[in-house]
Amino acid sequence: MTGNGRKTFRHLSEILEIARNQKSKKLAVAAAEDLYVLQAVLYANTENIIDPILVGDSDKILEICEENELDPEDIPLVDEKDPEKCCQLAIELIRQGEASLLMKGLVSTAPLLKAVLDKEKGLRKNELLSHAALIEVPAYHKLIAITDAGMNVQPGLKEKVNIIENAVEIYHRLGMEDPKVAVLGPVEKVNPKIQSTIDARDLKKMNLDGKIEGCLIDGPFAIDNAVSKEAALHKGIISEVAGDADILLAPDLDSGNILYKTLVFLAESTSAAVVMGASAPIVLTSRADSEKTKLMSIALAAALG
Question: What CATH number is given to the structural domain containing 68?
Answer without folding.
Answer: 3.40.50.10950
